[in-house]
Specification:
It catalyses: D-glyceraldehyde 3-phosphate = dihydroxyacetone phosphate. Helix content is 39%, strand content 18%. The chain is α/β, with parallel strands linked by helices. The chain has one domain (11-261): Alpha-Beta Barrel (TIM Barrel). Strands 1-2-3-4-5-6-7-8 form an eight-stranded parallel β-barrel, surrounded by five helices. β3, α3 and β4 form a beta-alpha-beta unit.
């Protein structure tokens, strides 16, 4: 976890493709991203972390395509059990075995459409750490309100999500993705000052959390080119969706990240 006052800024850029792409479209996108990353100077910067989260059927080719690159691959979900009679589910054990390094946990759409509760998310966070995966833990308020309200809601979600893992004395890395639900899919992201304040509060909470070996707090919710350079050091990066469908837009965001990583 980057400490306050450090001279080098650690930046994390992640992309979730959700269910937008078909299989071949995903493979083509991964190939283009791979080519961009391989020639971009950001790829050699040690304080940068890059990951992509395709759909389950595309994980194997994505892991293979990015094996020689700075990009890690992860899944958009996992089951809380490591094996068993859970038809249609995918375990963290399998994801780790095939080469995944990240897994998304607790996205607002999983809560809204599939009935995931705080307890499910806590169990899945524990399963991620248990299997050597970095959870991309999504938190965010449903309705737009004050910054203080957003902080209270997000901190409560983070506490709940880490609860099971801490009870089991599990440790690991975590990426907290602050995604205000009202900003997901909207034309504009949340105001930059509000993003910074919420992320700063979440980062302070992570510093105090037991079991967290390394952590970062990034922003998602209509995040795109031009946003990263407007955010303060409390925000460790971006969790990108549709704005990264164009590989050249991702390239532009990498340019922004490179500028931020220069020693101050």
């Amino acid at each position: 976890m980057s400490q306050p006052g450090s001279h080098e800024r650690v930046v994390t850029l992640g992309v979730s493709l959700k269910m937008y792409f078909g299989y071949q479209q995903t493979v083509d996108w991964c190939q283009r991203i791979h080519a961009i990353v391989q020639r971009h100077p950001l790829a050699s910067v040690v304080q940068v972390r890059l990951f992509v989260l395709p759909t389950f059927p595309a994980l194997a080719p994505a892991v293979s395509l990015f094996a020689d690159s700075a990009v890690d691959v992860g899944a958009q979900d996992l089951h809380w059990a490591d094996n068993g009679a859970f038809t249609g589910e995918v375990s963290g054990t399998l994801l780790h075995e095939m080469g995944c390094r990240y897994v998304e946990v607790g996205h607002a759409e999983r809560r809204r459409y599939f009935g995931e509760t705080d307890e499910h998310i806590a169990l899945k966070t524990a399963a991620a750490w248990r299997n050597g995966l970095t959870p991309v833990l999504c938190v965010g308020e449903e309705q737009r309100g004050s910054v203080q309200q957003a902080i209270a809601i997000c901190q409560a979600q983070l506490t709940s999500a880490l609860n099971r893992a801490q009870q089991q004395q599990l440790t690991g890395h975590v990426v907290v993705a602050y995604e205000p639900q009202w900003a997901i899919g909207s034309a504009e992201p949340a105001p930059t000052d509000a993003i910074s304040l919420v992320c700063e509060a979440l980062k302070q909470q992570l510093f105090a959390a037991t079991g967290v070996r390394d952590g970062s707090v990034i922003y998602g919710g209509s995040a795109g080119p031009g946003l990263l350079s407007q955010l303060g050091p409390a925000v460790d990066g971006l969790f990108l969706g549709r704005f990264a469908h164009d590989p050249m837009a991702f390239n532009a965001i990498m340019d922004e990240a490179l500028a931020l990583c220069a020693p101050q």
